[in-house]
Design brief:
7 helices; 7 strands
């Protein structure tokens, strides 16, 4: 009788733990997203794009300086990856993350051509960027609207953030399907993932873009 009671108690305990873990797991976002880009990646490196997006100012805001570690989430062609790699220098590291294996291959070839040795490519998952080490800064450049599980992904990303790390999101206002997503949606989802917005900027190129900076709570 005592043995049965102990087994019953153990089953209840396991059930409580399972329910608790389930309740703490972030749920996927329930909103439309844009189809990830699969075209010619070289199109992202058109002349003057860095100036229009004010990338140097973005890197200043995120604290990207020599010696820091940076993650480019949804790196695509490696446009921002290369700029960040030159900024952090030989003592810094940039992780170029993308879920598209073709993008990873493209960036690897580009790094070899441009003789950059402080960049590591990472093929992540839709719900986890799988960064191998803590980073001081993260940027998502026109990528957030393609993420199908942002709350889960950024919840998982928290484990890869160094203390006082900043996370930047550059995107454009839209309905999710038109390669844009409202800034209020981003702020709400990031809050659900455990982040707070610490800065908002509107100095982007065409009045439609925005730049949000987050920190883990």
């Amino acid at each position: 009788m005592l043995l049965r009671f102990r087994k019953f108690t153990l089953l209840i305990f396991v059930a409580i733990i399972s329910i608790s873990s389930l309740a703490q797991s972030p749920a996927p976002a329930q909103r439309p997203t844009s189809t990830p880009y699969t075209g010619d990646l070289s199109g992202f490196d058109n002349a003057g794009r860095a100036e229009r997006l004010q990338i140097n100012r973005v890197m200043d805001t995120l604290g990207i300086v020599p010696g820091k570690s940076v993650a480019d989430i949804g790196a695509g062609s490696g446009f921002f990856t290369v700029l960040a790699a030159r900024r952090v220098g030989d003592k810094g590291t940039v992780y170029a993350e993308d879920i598209n294996p073709e993008a990873i291959q493209y960036i690897d070839a580009r790094l070899k051509k441009e003789d950059l040795h402080n960049v590591k490519t990472v093929q992540g998952k839709p719900d986890n960027p799988l960064l191998p080490a803590p980073v001081n800064a993260v940027l998502l450049l026109k990528t957030y609207h393609e993420i199908g599980e942002p709350i889960v992904l950024f919840h998982n990303l928290r484990h890869s953030l160094a203390r006082d790390a900043k996370l930047g999101v550059i995107d454009r206002n839209g309905n999710g399907t038109n390669h844009g997503v409202g800034r209020d949606v981003v702020i709400r989802e990031m809050k659900a993932a455990g982040y707070k917005v610490v800065q908002q900027e509107d100095y982007k190129k065409d009045g439609m873009d925005y730049f949000l900076v987050f920190a883990a709570e």
